[in-house]
Write a structure and sequence with these properties.
Elements: H1 5-11, H2 23-46, H3 48-88, H4 94-102, E1 112-117, E2 120-123, E3 128-129, H5 138-143, E4 150-151, E5 155-157, E6 162-170, E7 179-185, E8 202-207, E9 213-218, H6 229-236, H7 243-252, E10 255-262, E11 265-274, E12 281-288, H8 289-337, E13 338-339, E14 344-345, H9 347-360, E15 366-373, H10 376-383, H11 385-403, E16 408-411, E17 416-422, H12 426-440, E18 455-461, H13 462-465, H14 470-481, E19 490-492, H15 495-516, E20 520-529, E21 534-546, E22 551-553, H16 559-565, H17 568-589, E23 596-599, H18 602-605, H19 610-620, E24 628-633, H20 634-639, H21 641-653, E25 657-663, H22 670-675, E26 680-683, H23 694-710, E27 714-718, H24 723-732, E28 736-738, H25 748-756
Parallel strand pairs: 18-19, 21-23, 23-24, 24-25, 25-26, 26-27, 27-28
Antiparallel strand pairs: 1-2, 1-7, 2-3, 4-6, 5-6, 6-7, 8-9, 8-12, 10-11, 11-12, 13-14, 15-17, 15-18, 16-17, 20-21, 20-28, 21-22
Helix pairs in contact: 2-8, 3-8, 10-11, 11-12, 17-19
């Protein structure tokens, strides 16, 4: 359900669409029905002229379509014949000619191949033959020898005793052959019968001007054509004076449709001039006009009958919808106002009901509470749809209880909940929210997983914002939420909340330019190894320098914001590059160098290019192995347990050490110590603060130190500021200390001088 949250809200209509069919819609349906009925009646009465035109256009289209097929047939003859002619160019003896020509016998799109030399005709295998035709085509071929191709008139070939046409291609550069030809019989022409169908009386290919028929196909033999199309048409025209119009239409146009009244009745004559050797052939078809119109009319009638049936069923469906509408209203209302899978009102329903509550209780103080489950999409993907719904249903029940009977609650996508509740002061509300967040983790939905819910809370009361609309209260609650520093915290809206947001906005407006201008600089805090009484290493801590005010801003004022808006990745990369440059410059000058660790945000570490960037720049600046260390926070290691092991392994392969920072700050997991080979363990400052039982605190701290050492990890205690703390961590067996007791963070130049000088801690009174 979580992945569909957003789509559901976008697609949710403002009003119930099934709350009853409006009167206006009923009127529209009635009017459409009347218009369709009138259209049907008009169709039967007034469609005849339209159908006539449609029928004629349809007949013409079929003739054109068939004409292209016949053209393709003849064009293929020319193409193949031209191919043979090219191979014969420059032929020097008759044997070579016969070998080439005979190889094409039986090839598709060829008729009877013949070749010519000095008015003599030869078969494909070189046998001289006499011209066996009623109309000698040799003069036509002789006349076309200067052309690239030619096509003869129709003739009856005595060899085949069949109507034929000859194609001829001249052959250049040969003394033994003038040209190559192909005799095409009527029976070999593209089949015309496939478009006769029912409407045409006949279709024929004829000579364009003489009308001599080459090939034809009949529906029946009743409409006799003979051997000449024009003679047949002239004998059939009812009015002899109309024949000239028909002849002119066919011979003067590339495409024509002519209505002619024959003795048998009105017909449509369609013709298409074939683009074959100067357009000497035409495809022509003759069809009864009445049959064409009847077929078109039948098609339209079928469509109208289907339309009438469709209208009838439409009316039945409308009737059923009206009948079922009242029964569906309650269910539809539920779907439109609730997330049914979790049984929780949606955002729109919340704002509607909460506004009513505020308006009807003007004397009471209320507060708007905004909850957001951190990393909800990650949790949803890990749990799956059903368990995510179970989790949301559980939290929704808690939200309902928190709202009590006098308030309201709702869910609004991606792990975000709204609550309106009577306000009894910050203290009581804070306690109620703490119970809410604690109980949120008591659910079977996350059982068997390592998921721990962190729910941030923003609150705005009518005491702080006045008697404003619920939308304003909730927006202010969201503003308060954005000021939370840690996951799971609660923040209350006040006048200072807006100041904090304006402060953040100012930082965001300056951060890009500040990075480009080099205002972010690393300070180095030395780490002390009391075994050697020397500087062991250092941690690079970023500072933001303001050149106008000549002051440095500490990380706590901007790091959290940068992690939220994603700028932290650019900052992490920038600090790392500056550290690499510092080490490289020290090596080049022969200055002493110590390992330097850099902090990496969780935002940076989960990026796909993390390893590539840090490894590539180590190699770019030729930093020796073990002089760079990456500090991962304990919380990142726990939340990204599935990837931290691979990151550490790859960094080790490339000579970069790894440190587990802030260990013990609240998310400790000894599995990380056991399974991930960290080089260094940095104990959180919490280990220096006394708890209820000092002895138990010391036992725990000593156990952590001993365990880390057994895993060959260097143990560092940060935050050491006093001699008492120094002596305490020494007694625990800590290897290295970091803190103001030894040295504060200093600039690069100061750090260079520091490690060159006497760095003994004994001057501070240490032992």
């Amino acid at each position: 359900m979580s992945k569909k949250d957003k789509d559901k809200k976008k697609n949710a209509p403002e009003k119930n669409p099934n709350g009853g069919v409006p009167l206006a819609l009923k009127v529209v349906i009635f009017v459409i029905t009347i218009l369709l009925t009138v259209s049907v009646l008009y169709t039967f009465v007034g469609l005849e002229p339209f159908l006539q035109d449609a029928a004629i256009v349809n007949a013409e289209a079929k003739i054109i379509d068939m004409g292209y097929k016949v053209e393709t047939f003849f064009a293929k003859h020319y193409d193949n014949l031209y191919e043979v002619g090219k191979k014969l160019e420059g032929a020097e003896d008759e044997e070579a000619v016969r070998e080439i020509v005979s190889s094409y016998i039986g090839v598709d799109y060829f008729g009877n191949l013949r070749y010519f030399n000095k008015s003599k005709v030869y078969t494909a295998d070189g046998i001289e033959i006499e011209v066996a035709s009623d109309e000698d085509y040799l003069p036509l071929i002789e006349a076309s020898k200067s052309q690239t191709k030619s096509c003869t008139q129709i003739f009856r070939d005595k060899t085949y005793n069949e109507i034929c046409v000859a194609f001829y291609i001249p052959v250049k550069g040969s003394q033994v052959i003038d040209g190559i030809g192909s005799i095409i019989r009527r029976s070999e022409v593209a089949d015309l019968s496939n478009i006769i169908e029912n409407e045409y009386s006949f279709i024929a290919v004829m000579e364009s001007t003489s009308g001599k028929v080459m090939t034809s196909t009949y529906k029946t033999n009743d409409f006799s054509l003979g051997t000449n199309f024009f003679q047949a048409m002239e004998s059939k025209v009812a009015d002899a004076s109309k024949y000239g119009k028909l002849y002119q239409a066919i011979t003067s146009k590339s495409v024509s449709n002519t209505e002619v009244v024959f003795k048998e009745g009105p017909y449509v004559v369609s013709s298409f001039v074939l683009a074959i050797s100067d357009n000497t052939y035409t495809l022509v078809g003759v069809a009864p006009r009445s049959l064409l119109v009847t077929q078109e009319y039948s098609f339209i009638v079928e469509m109208l009958v289907i339309s009438i049936i469709a209208i009838f069923f439409l009316m039945i469906c409308i009737f059923l919808i009206l009948k079922m509408n009242k029964a569906r209203q309650a269910q539809t209302e539920l779907v439109l106002t609730h997330y049914v899978e979790i049984g929780c009102p949606n955002g729109k329903k919340f704002f509607d009901e909460a506004e009513k509550i505020l308006n009807s209780n003007r004397t009471k103080d209320y507060c708007a509470i905004y909850f957001e489950v951190a990393q909800f999409q990650f949790i949803s993907d890990k749990l799956g749809g059903d368990r995510t719904n179970e989790l949301l249903k559980h939290i929704g029940t808690l939200a309902k209880n928190l709202a009590t009977n006098t308030g309201y609650y709702g869910y609004d996508q991606q792990g975000r909940f709204y609550v309106l509740r009577e306000f009894g002061g910050e203290k009581s509300l804070r306690s109620a929210v703490q119970v809410f967040t604690m109980l949120a983790n008591k659910t079977n939905a996350t059982e068997g997983t390592d998921i721990t819910l962190s729910i941030g809370t923003g609150v705005c009361s009518t005491v702080a914002a006045g008697r404003v609309q619920i939308s304003v209260l909730m927006e202010n609650a969201k503003i308060a939420f954005r000021t939370i520093k840690k996951l799971g915290d609660i923040a209350f809206y006040s006048a200072n909340t807006d100041k904090k947001l304006k402060h953040d906005a100012d930082i965001e407006a300056r951060m890009e330019k500040a990075l480009a201008d080099g205002e972010f600089v690393p300070f180095f805090q030395p780490k002390y190894n009391y075994h050697t009484d020397k500087v062991h290493s250092a941690e690079a801590l970023v500072r933001w320098y303001n050149p106008e005010k000549n002051i440095y801003t500490f990380p706590f004022e901007f790091i959290e914001l940068f992690e939220k808006n994603g700028f932290i990745k650019k900052l992490d990369h920038n600090v790392y590059i500056q550290v690499c440059e510092f080490i490289r410059a020290s090596l080049d000058k022969g200055d002493p160098v110590v390992p330097i660790s850099v902090n990496v945000s969780r935002v940076t570490a989960i990026e796909n290019d993390f390893l590539d960037f840090y490894v590539r720049n180590k190699k770019k600046y030729a930093i020796p192995n073990d002089l760079l260390c990456i500090e991962f926070t304990e919380s990142f290691a726990i939340e990204n347990y599935d990837i931290i092991e691979n990151l550490v392994e790859e960094l080790h392969k490339n000579g970069i050490k790894c440190s587990l920072d802030d260990f013990g700050s609240g998310y400790s997991s000894f599995n990380i110590l056991k399974n991930v080979p960290m080089d260094e363990l940095k104990m959180d400052i919490l280990f220096l603060k006394e708890g209820v039982d000092k002895k138990r605190d010391e036992v725990l701290a000593r156990t952590v130190v001993e365990l880390a050492k057994r895993f060959n990890m260097l143990v560092v205690q940060e935050g050491v500021e006093t001699p008492v703390q120094f002596d305490y961590v020494k007694s625990l067996g800590v290897d290295v200390i970091q803190g103001y007791y030894f040295a504060k963070p200093i600039s690069a130049d100061e750090f260079n001088l520091f490690i060159k000088s006497n760095t003994s801690i004994k001057i501070k009174g240490g032992q």
